[in-house]
Amino acid sequence: MTNIATWARLKSPWVIHFNSGACNGCDIEIVALLTPKYDVERFGIKLEPSPRHADVLLVTGSVTKQCADRLKRIYDQMPQPKFVVAIGACACSGGVFQGTYGVLGGVDKVLPVNAYIPGCPPRPEALIDGVVKLLNAIKGPPKPKKATKEEAPKQETLPPPPVEAAPIPTEVKPDAQ
């Protein structure tokens, strides 16, 4: 049964987006992913409004003291296995808000993060690449193929010996006068 669940999560990951206090630059890039120009649905990715149905939590913005409990509550409501992606410089490390009185820092101060996508804001192509790499990491390393009778190991053949080129004359002939 776990193989079926893993297959379903890989082929159709549902994501939920949480803005923990960003400038909305990363949010605009996430919304751009849903447009036909980038078409993340070709990877089976669907934006889900409920944490109870989501597999991947996309977090933008630095984590503030005010939203840390809400972020943790949303994470706890997600079914297992769940994955967290920190999007943008603020979510990865706190960004320009790091060190201010109301900011705890990046998402990893509150939740375990599976993938970091840096940038301010990261391009939609980088977001797609990060999520696809996360899905490939979930899948695990590829299994080695078993050799069949038709695919018997080929014997190595040595390449032909190199052909020597004619030497290039290095003497300079004096001009005939």
Keywords:
extended; 177 residues; two-stranded antiparallel sheet; Rossmann fold; 15% strand; alpha/beta; 28% helix; five-stranded parallel β-sheet
Overview of this protein structure:
By secondary structure, the protein is an alpha/beta fold. The chain has one domain: Rossmann fold (3-Layer(aba) Sandwich), CATH 3.40.50. Helices cover about 30% and strands about 15% of the residues. Strands 2-1-3-5-7 form a five-stranded parallel sheet. Helix 2 links the parallel strand 1 (about 15-20) and strand 2. Helix 2 packs across helix 5 (about 125-140). The longest helix has 16 residues, at about 125-140. The protein is extended and about 85 Å long. The model has no long low-confidence stretch (mean pLDDT about 80).
Total separate domains: 1
Q: What is the CATH topology?
A: Rossmann fold
* CATH arch. level architecture: 3-Layer(aba) Sandwich
| Helix and strand pattern | HEHEEEHEHEEH
User: What order do the strands of the largest sheet run in, or round the barrel if closed?
Assistant: 2-1-3-5-7
Largest sheet: 5 strands, parallel
Helical region count?
5
- How many beta-strand runs? 7
Stretches where pLDDT falls below 50 for ≥5 residues? none
How much beta, percentage-wise? 5-15%
Shape annotation: extended
| Mean pLDDT over all positions | 78
CA(first)-CA(last) distance = 94 Å
- Rg, nearest Å: 27 Å
What structural class do the secondary elements suggest? alpha/beta
Helix content: 25-40%
